[in-house]
From TrEMBL:
Residues 160-347 form the HD-GYP domain. This is Response regulator. One of its GO terms (biological process) is phosphorelay signal transduction system. The keyword Phosphoprotein applies. Transmembrane segments: none annotated. The keyword Phosphoprotein applies. It comes from Candidatus Desulfobia pelagia.
Length: 347
């Protein structure tokens, strides 16, 4: 391990030489200069302590320590002075001096102790700086690793969500395909709802919610007897009660999937009415979410214009008239008029 290096600045050659000889006896490497400016010219972070005289011509000790502090080297500075006034002491401490050494040096042992402590402080500051630097590097590395893991986790979570939704949609599609009358219903309701959302300037996030809700809105029918859905005629009270459970059942199916909470609300309420006569909860007016109102209009229009086992499909014009007739009771008028404007532009 190399010997500690000390820089001394004192304009008194006799004092300077005496201090040098004492420190060399203790095994230190010494660089001695006659003034503050000379000290600053050779100053570097290789020094472990600095000894400054206070009263030096050109640049005194106080001016020198201020210049040293600006360099940010964290080297302890000891003042060597015979003018041990309280005023000097206060000023030196305020400027960041580590300690004082009185001259002439009468107590060699105390002198050595002060030098050793200054060098120990320097060693501590170097280790602390190295520790902080390594810690900062380690934190940056761990932060980067964590960010990368978070990205992978988000990607995995997204893929899992997409896979889950696609699985449910596949089951729903398989259900529709069993019935020639309902085949394509989900696709059409989704397309209609997306068009209404865009025409109403809804955000992409809201359109995504509506899209998933449409794809899942009839998933509750998976647990309803298909023969009941395909029955070519009026349903009995018991059958109708069973069919009316599909929104609630649908929400229950997707409820464990927390990322579909808003979609679940739409699934549950897509047969509610503005006048409160819908099902399953009988909510009304503004208690029904706008996205739900959109899906309700799209779903009802497709049901009216599609051929079913129990009825003949309506013409587009008749379905439009029916929707207008039920504005403010079953349907939201703003959503209906927006959809009608869209249908007017379609062949």
């Amino acid at each position: 391990m190399p010997y500690p290096k000390i820089l001394i600045a004192d304009d008194d050659a006799l004092v300077r030489d005496a201090v040098v000889k004492i420190l060399e006896l203790f095994g230190y490497q010494i660089t001695a200069v006659p003034g503050g400016r000379e000290a600053l010219e050779i100053l570097s972070d290789e020094y472990d302590a600095i000894i400054l005289d206070i009263n030096m011509p050109g640049m005194n000790g106080f001016e020198t320590i201020q210049a040293i502090t600006k360099r940010g080297l964290d080297i302890p500075v000891l003042f060597l002075t015979g003018a041990g006034t309280m005023e000097y002491a206060v000023k030196a401490i305020s400027l960041g001096a580590y300690d004082f050494i009185a001259k002439p040096i009468d107590d060699i042992d105390l002198f050595e102790v002060k030098i050793k402590r200054a060098i120990e402080k320097r060693m501590f500051l170097i280790k602390e700086k190295s520790y902080k630097k390594n810690l900062e590097k380690e934190v940056k590395l761990k932060t980067k690793e964590l960010a990368e893991k978070n990205i992978l986790l988000e990607q995995y979570s997204h893929h899992l969500e997409v896979s889950t939704v696609n699985t449910i949609i596949t089951l729903n599609t398989a259900l529709e395909e069993k019935d020639q009358y309902t085949a394509g219903h989900t696709r059409r309701v989704t397309e209609y709802s997306q068009m209404i959302c865009r025409a109403m300037d809804l955000s992409q996030a809201e359109i995504s919610v509506v899209t998933r809700a449409c794809q899942l809105h009839d998933i509750g029918k998976l647990v309803i007897d298909v023969s009941c859905i395909q029955k070519p005629g009026p349903l009995t009270d018991e059958e109708w009660t069973l069919v009316k459970k599909h929104p609630e059942v649908g929400e229950n199916i997707i409820r464990p999937l927390s990322f579909l909470s808003r979609e679940g609300t739409i699934v549950r309420h897509h047969h509610e009415r503005l006048d409160g006569k819908g099902y399953p909860d009988g909510i009304y007016g503004d208690d029904i979410d706008l996205l739900t109102k959109i899906v309700t209009v799209a779903d009802s229009y497709d049901a009216m214009t599609s051929k079913r086992a129990y009825k003949v499909n309506m013409a587009k014009e008749d379905a439009i008239e029916e929707m207008r007739k039920h504005c403010n009771t079953q349907f939201d008028p703003r959503v209906v008029e927006t959809f009608i404007d869209i249908l007017a532009t379609r062949a």
